[in-house]
User: Fold DNA topoisomerase from Enterococcus faecium.
Amino acid sequence: MVTNKGILLCQAVEKEPLLTSAEMTAKWESYLLKIGEQKGTQATFLANIQKFVSHLLEVVPGQIQSTDFGSTLQEVKAASEKQEATRHLGVCPKCREQEVLLYQNVAACTSEACDFKLWTTIAKKKLTATQLKEIIQNGRTSQSVRGLKGQKGSFEATIVLKEDFTTGFEFSEKKKTNYKKRTRRTT
Assistant:
């Protein structure tokens, strides 16, 4: 996750022409080729990088002080608040006491005493934060989820939270009748 300080640092360093130029990258690549051809040394390359970093450490703090980050800070704060809001999925349906937070691969109750977890990928389909929120708050997705994959191929179903707090599928009657019955040929 990108931090506010990281964004501000990137903006300050952006003003350093040596760091952002393709020429500097080309010079480094060229010298690395020389090292590969035994025409240059690793020690020289690292010494030059050390000089470059020392130069940055002298110049960048001044650039940070002279840069107006007002609008950037507001944008970063708004983005952080939006991201934080999408992490909160609702009250835990199992313990009904704590919040369920969205992490990279799982939504989990914040209570140490509660073991509620909802995987973000179900039937090889990555669910959206909105779909996960619907399951937690309403016990089901509001619409059928397409692109779910099972042993017999792709399918569409409403994802439901069962009584044991695991997920299951609910298939609409309309979809069931649309599938053609497969017959096996025997010879």
